[in-house]
Amino acid sequence: MAINAKITKPHINVFYHKGSIIAESFNHVIWGIEEEGIPYAIEGKQEETALELAYLGAESSNLGVGIGIGNDGLLILHYNKLQKDHPLFRIKLKDSAETLRKIGANAARLVKGIPFKAI
Questions:
Q1: How far, in whole angstroms, is CA 99 from its chain's centroid?
Q2: What pTM did the predictor assign?
Q3: CA quadruple 79, 27, 34, 11: dihedral positive or negative?
Q4: 50: nearest Cα among 81, 25, 21
Q5: Res 4 pLDDT > 50
Q6: Sign of CA dihedral 91, 94, 101, 74
Q7: In the predicted model, is pLDDT for residue 5 greater than 50?
Q8: Virtual torsion, Cα 57, 61, 66, 68, nearest 10 deg
Q9: Using an 8 Å Cβ cutoff, are 47 and 53 in contact?
Q10: Are β-strands 65-69 and 12-17 bridged in parallel, bridged antiparallel, or unpaired?
């Protein structure tokens, strides 16, 4: 008897508020993840704040890492081993392209277990 189970490749979840954020606004974050060679999934969600989205992303990622981009103008990197109110990084979505890219790279570096890039 065959079991039809959905097998998901390990990835970082990047969740954004689909009512107010467009995916193109955080391309630099994605490019930072790609530079480090870690898979990711992007998904629009109903949750509004970056903290809610990042925590949900980390909790539902099989790598334990989530990035949330909320309608509050923040971008948060979270890890599932941390308490909800204590994310790793919190920046503004309007920060420089370099900072956004470093957040993406740091999400991937968390998975790899190597030092973060300075922000």
A1: 14
A2: 0.92
A3: positive
A4: 21
A5: no
A6: positive
A7: yes
A8: -20
A9: yes
A10: parallel
